[in-house]
What we know:
Elements lengths: L3 E9 L2 H11 L3 E7 L3 E6 L7 E6 H7 L9 E6 L2 H10 L3 E2 L3 E3 L2 E7 L5 E6 L3
Parallel strand pairs: 1-4, 5-9
Antiparallel strand pairs: 1-5, 2-3, 3-4, 6-8, 7-8, 8-9
Amino acid sequence: MIAKLGQVMVYVKDQDQAVTFWTEKMGFDVITEENKGMRWIEVAPSTSAETSIVLHNKDVIAKMQPDMNLDTPSLMFFTKELDHLHEDLKLKGVKVGEIVKMGTNRVFNFSDFEENYFAVGERAE
């Protein structure tokens, strides 16, 4: 049901500084930047790259998900069937979070047996 690895989520203290690093030092492009209750910045080596990095504000995410490990990047997988996958993982005994709206996307987190967190986002691609 997971279609592909879509994003790597990096949790940063200063999103502006992170954007400067990834664009000016690394040559990445800003793919998306939204601020609808939460600032979402997506960068990638090019606009046609299949996988991107999302630069999340560490403090904001910590308030939303206090039990989440924000010391390492998280992987975000994409699926066309978010509700079905969420229910399927719950039935299999996987620790899953609630489906929430982040910007214009619906997502949920899940963790492995070592409490490493991952996310799944809804994408029709």
